[in-house]
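cron nightly-structures :: item 1 of 1
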Amino acid sequence: MKIQIRLRAPNGQQRLEVDDTSPLSDLLKLIEEKTELKKFSLKYGYPLKTLDNPPETPVNTLNLRGENIVVAPLESSIPNTETQVKVAQEEKKPFVPKGIEPDETSLEWPERGGYMVLRVMPDDNSCMFTALGGALGISNPSELLRQQVAQYIFEHPLEYDKAILGDEPARYTGRMLQSDTWGGAIELSILSAIYDLEISSIDVKSLRVDRFGEGKSERVIILYSGIHYDRIAFALDLSMPVEVDVTKWRTDDDEVLEKARQLAQQLQRMHYYTDTTDFVIKCEICNWIGQGTKQAAAHEKETGHGRFGEMQIE
């Protein structure tokens, strides 16, 4: 009989199939072939624990069926940093270790052997879709998620009518399908229903947690800083690439949400938020200037323009 195992490694996510009577050494060899790593450790379960059984252990005794196994490269199998820096200098590019974003912030979590990490999203008006899509393992998610939201609105006309959307559904979805239109609470509630999970959005300024899809069994966590969304993830080590982040948790794991709030509180002290009640905003399409999100929403409704930026007043 075959055992299906999901693998998360630096080179992406894969699904493996192994005979349940095989020894663990066969699985290790298969993982080595798939990941091209010579030395690594394996993490599995919830909370994550190390798979360190003897190589001759039969796979069917390890209870790995349907598990997500995280492949953590050991130091000797990671490319030499000096070599990477030299290559970057020759190419006249800044050196950034793979998987580490220059402006990410983290909070150590010793009890679980890793870090809660802020994964900063591009400031391209699709940050909410990118943050959520990455947590779901979707590559280039903006277009797909926007289409799914629009389709859901059309399929649920009584639930998402003009009164809820603030505009005619056809016009609302037409704007939402454009890559320069922001996503927000309505889109989060719809995507929660589509993917059957709770989306917990932590507001940096207030530390309030808005939960979309309460009652679900799984949760993802995003962070809202006033006019921007980022993703919160768990990393075993800050040198590991984002592809092996843990981004889904059980909704009964209150410790995860509390640790995420602590990270948000740390960001709050750094003033990592925009006060949307009085900030000056500019429409990047027609150069209209207003104050606060209410005026921005009114301008978007009137003109259909959904691309804004904060103006810095000297």
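cron nightly-structures :: done
The longest helix spans residues 254-269.
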